[in-house]
């Protein structure tokens, strides 16, 4: 007569099966989601921050270009640094924290030697046969802060763009 042992069997344990007859995978999807979701959230916020930084960079570039175009329209506008800064600020109306600085400088252009030399001021004159060339420059800055602070990356980024053009 065989000896009965309660709770102990030598038979291999059978996997729990569902109605389809296959082994049940209940809960494995939840574990996979728990492992992948943090990575997906970091990628989502990283893509959002990259898009925001790129948009801010394009906005600053557009604004300084608008400011320098205002100053390069004619000689009178080239001396109005306030007008160039206002034109840049108007173009950057949707970029918060934007600031612009404008400047004007002159050079002496020698057509015979094809050389430009800097002048101390735009009110001085060039030696003949050189001519005065007037340039305007606008520099715009904006500090960008990401939505989430990432380890190993700075908490903010200063976006700076400069545009330079010769006045007409």
Account of the 3D structure:
There is one protein chain. The protein is α+β, with helices and mostly antiparallel strands and 168 residues long. The protein has one domain. Helices cover 36% and strands 24% of the residues. The chain contains three helices and four strands; from the N terminus they run αααββββ. It has a four-stranded antiparallel beta sheet. A hairpin with a 4-residue loop joins strand 1 and strand 2. The mean pLDDT is 87.
- Quaternary structure: single chain
Q: Count the helices. How many?
A: 3
Structure class: alpha+beta
Instruction: Spell the H/E element sequence.
Output: HHHEEEE
Strand segment count: 4
Shape: rod-shaped
What gap, in angstroms, lies between the N and C termini? 114 Å
Radius of gyration in whole Å, from Cα?
Answer: 34 Å
Going across the biggest sheet, name each strand in turn.
2-1-3-4
Largest sheet: 4 strands, antiparallel
Beta content comes to 15-25%
What are the low-pLDDT stretches, counting only 5+ consecutive residues below 50?
none
Averaged pLDDT: 87
Q: Please, how many domains?
A: 1
Helix content: 25-40%
Supply database-style keywords:
168 residues, alpha+beta, 4-stranded antiparallel beta sheet, 36% helix, rod-shaped
């Amino acid at each position: 007569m065989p000896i009965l042992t309660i709770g102990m069997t030598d038979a291999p344990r059978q996997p729990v099966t569902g109605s389809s007859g296959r082994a049940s995978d209940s809960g494995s999807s939840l574990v996979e989601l728990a492992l992948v979701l943090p990575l997906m959230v970091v990628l989502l916020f990283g893509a959002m921050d990259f898009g925001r930084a790129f948009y801010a960079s394009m906005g600053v570039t557009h604004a300084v270009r608008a400011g320098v175009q205002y100053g390069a329209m004619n000689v009178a506008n080239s001396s109005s640094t306030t007008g160039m800064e206002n034109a840049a600020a108007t173009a950057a109306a949707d970029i918060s924290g934007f600031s612009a600085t404008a400047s004007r400088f002159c050079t002496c252009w020698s057509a015979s030697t094809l050389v430009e030399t800097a002048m101390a001021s735009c009110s001085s004159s060039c030696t003949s046969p050189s001519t005065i060339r007037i340039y305007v420059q606008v520099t715009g800055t904006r500090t960008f802060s990401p939505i989430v602070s990432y380890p190993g990356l700075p908490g903010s980024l200063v976006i700076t763009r400069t545009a330079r053009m010769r006045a007409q």
